[in-house]
Amino acid sequence: MSALLEVEDLAKHYRLSDGRTLRAVDGVSFTIAEGEVLGVVGESGCGKTTLGRTVLRLHEPTAGHVRFRGEDTVALGRRALRTLRRQMQIVFQDPYASLNPRMTVGQTLTIPLRVHEPRLTRAGQRKRIAAALTRVGLPPAAADRYPHEFSGGQRQRIGIARALMSHPSLLVADEPVSALDVSVQAQVINLLLDLRAELGLAILFIAHDLAVVGMVSDRIAVMYLGRIVELAPTEALFARPRHPYTEALFSAVPDISTQRQRILLEGDLPSPFAPPSGCPFRTRCHYAEPACAEARPPLAEHAPGHLAACRRPELTLASPLPAADPALIFG
């Protein structure tokens, strides 16, 4: 598959008034192929959401490159970027805050059409809105109702419909199920997978739950303190994680079928203002050695297509979960 999106050494730093620098995203590189789903997973505060928004230039990058079908979006002016953005859309995390309560669903879905297809007639707009609502499992009559008349899962479907209005090739799904009940999560995930199969969508799927990410993704990137510490095909990551942080994330997934022991990380997530020297995970890692403080390990290939930023490739780390097992996630 050809590369749809290429992200190279992307960084997003925030300079605060007291002179400190927050390195929210700090040198991230990956690719997404046409029709591929790349999952991004990590604790809150690791930079997942900032990464997704910087890829779309909702946040301006501090450094690096983002190439969409070979075109560097970082170098584009506002007019050229608006033209390209119809191909790159986002589904936000909170289905309650992401919809304007003063606008009907139809009015909300009309906005992308006015921006990207201003010559479309009102009849054409209504037809496109009805088709989008039907595609996400809602009746066309929903266009005349307001957001407060829908459940959380239905609102997220509306958010997905809004993202689809411009016929994008890439969808950034920013924790699209974390605010929903477990049973509704399964429905929204199945919808995204159906849309991917039907429309050939590529998806950057951001979440904090490794089991949910495994349900959706072809490959998974694990983030810690603004950097990718492991990147691998889903089956390979689930069969044998190569970074201790990934192993700890696996152990945090609820599982009543076994009596496995959870790995408890020591201490809190280090401050992104002053990350530890060497490996940033070493202060919480059960396998850390004195040498881990000397230099930051590079993201290196330890198996075909399996990259990890750990100086101890001899470690045998295990996942207790079979990849993409719905029963372990939704019961």
Main sheet: strands, sense, barrel:
8 strands, mixed
Q: What is the number of independent domains? A: 2
Distance between the termini: 34 Å
Stated plainly, the CATH topology of the largest domain is called: Rossmann fold
Would you mind describing this structure in some detail?
By secondary structure, the protein is α/β, with parallel strands linked by helices. It has two domains: 3-223, Rossmann fold; 241-330, no CATH class. It is 30% helix and 22% strand. It contains ten helices and twelve strands. The chain has helices spanning 48-55, 78-85, 105-116, 122-135, 152-164, 182-199, 210-216, 234-239, 244-251, 326-330; strands at 3-15, 21-33, 37-41, 63-68, 71-72, 88-91, 170-174, 202-207, 219-224, 227-233, 300-303, 306-308. The chain has an eight-stranded mixed β-sheet with strand order 6-7-8-3-9-10-12-11, with helices on both faces. A hairpin with a 2-residue loop joins strand 9 and strand 10. Helix 3 runs parallel beside helix 5 (152-164). The radius of gyration is 21 Å and the shape is globular. Residues 326-331 have low confidence and may be disordered.
Structural descriptors:
331 residues; alpha/beta; Rossmann fold; 2 domains; eight-stranded mixed β-sheet; four-stranded antiparallel β-sheet; 10 helices; globular; disordered C terminus
